[in-house]
Specification:
Elements: E1 3-7, H1 13-22, E2 26-30, H2 34-53, H3 63-69, E3 70-72, H4 76-80, E4 85-88, H5 94-107, E5 113-116, E6 135-139, E7 149-154, H6 160-172, E8 176-180, H7 189-205, H8 211-229, H9 232-238, H10 240-249, H11 262-269, H12 289-310, H13 316-319
Parallel strand pairs: 1-2, 1-4, 2-3, 4-5, 5-6, 7-8
Antiparallel strand pairs: 6-7
The chain binds nicotinamide-adenine-dinucleotide (NAD).
Residues 7-13, 30-33, 36, 89-92, 96, 100, 117-119, 139-140, 142 line the site of nicotinamide-adenine-dinucleotide.
Length: 320
């Protein structure tokens, strides 16, 4: 059991706190906004109940149990007191992160590992010199209590032992860490997702297909193979000569990065900003966001459990 401090209790922070708690760690959670910190309790309880109902958390994990495993604290000093790992999950602005890292330098135990959840910032230049030895990125995906991938990036001066500690901790919690050789914005999965996003927005803006048809192509075409094969094992099954011929034919031109999409602009202007507003590409207004999140999580749990049963192709080439 390690003592974990999670700084920032928003979309990611409260959910990461829950993962560490379920992993058997003692967690302290804080947020500069007291209302967000208060709200985090209910969000963790709701996510925990979904996990318990789906068999992904032990049934004896009640709200009372959770309150013992994750305590909420108003001050940073109290939150990081005695912390072995500090998860930084605050807003994605360099100034805010720089200020926080300076405060942590003052308040945190000298050997605490600093693990930033940044989506796209090279945070290492923002970390004070004295903390570089224990600074790394551990980037989670939402919802982190269901999506197992965690991208790990060591800072330029990070002690390999600090990275190994965090990697081992992730593995012990059932996560799937990948250790990247260097920081690149978007890591691996989000870069690929960004490429898909560009393509989808272009198809919509050009009126090639509707949102329903595009999602049908993904769900019934791409998605069935992806969980079993990934992209590269799928290429092995297709045959690499075809991959080479497709490249040589130059039949596909990726969309250019225009920095905006007419469809997206129109939706946002109309207040259709996604599930929380009741509509986005789809009209979700028949159900509350809570009900929709729960419905999503239930399906993700069922898929995870099925995939665990089925297994992936990666690794099979050596075992059979
Ligand atoms: N939302 C995602 O899907 C996602 C996924 C992976 C990584 N991230 C990254 O995680 C981080 C947090 O993102 P989020 O989506 O949870 O944002 P969020 O806005 O939901 O939460 C951020 C929280 O940080 C708090 N905060 C700001 N400054 C603070 C400070 N100095 N001390 C304590 N709390 C402070 C805010 O009050 C807010 O509640 C960002 O770096 C983001 O890029 C987000």
């Amino acid at each position: 059991m390690a003592r974990i401090a999670v700084v920032g209790a928003g979309t990611m922070g409260h959910a990461i706190a829950l993962v560490f708690a379920l992993g058997g760690h003692q967690v302290r959670l804080t947020d500069s906004n007291p209302a967000t910190l208060a709200k985090a309790q209910g969000l963790m309880e709701k996510a925990l109940a979904t996990l318990v109902a789906g068999g992904e958390a032990p049934p004896d994990w009640t709200s009372a149990h959770l309150s013992q495993a994750v305590t909420r604290h108003e001050t940073l000093a109290e939150t990081v007191d005695g912390a072995e790992v500090i998860v930084e999950a605050i807003i994605e602005t360099p100034e805010a992160k720089r200020t926080l890292f300076a405060e942590l330098d003052r308040l945190a135990p000298p050997d605490a590992i600093l693990a930033s959840n940044t989506s796209g910032l090279d945070v290492f230049p923002l970390v004070p010199a004295a903390r570089q030895r224990r600074a790394l990125i551990a980037h989670w995906y939402t919802p982190p209590y269901l999506v197992d991938l965690v991208d790990l990036v060591a800072g330029p001066e990070c002690d390999p032992a600090a990275l190994a500690t965090v990697r081992d901790m992730m593995v012990a919690m059932g996560k799937q860490p990948i250790v990247m050789k260097k920081f690149v914005p978007g890591y691996v999965a989000n870069r690929i997702q960004a490429a898909i996003g560009l393509e989808v927005q272009q198809l919509l803006d050009d009126g090639v297909a509707t949102p329903e048809e595009i999602d049908a192509a993904i769900v019934h075409g791409l998605a069935l193979r992806l969980p079993i094969l990934g992209v590269l094992a799928k290429a092995d099954f297709t045959g690499l000569e075809l991959s080479r011929a497709i490249l040589a034919n130059k039949g596909y031109t990726p969309p250019s990065v225009r920095g905006h999409s007419e469809t997206l602009d129109r939706l946002v202007k109309a207040g259709r900003t996604g599930v929380l507003s009741g509509a986005g590409y789809y009209d979700w207004s028949g159900k509350s966001p809570e009900a929709l999140f729960e419905a999503r999580d239930r399906r993700l749990i069922a898929l995870k459990q099925a995939l665990r049963e089925i297994g992936t192709m990666a690794g099979l080439e050596r075992s059979e």
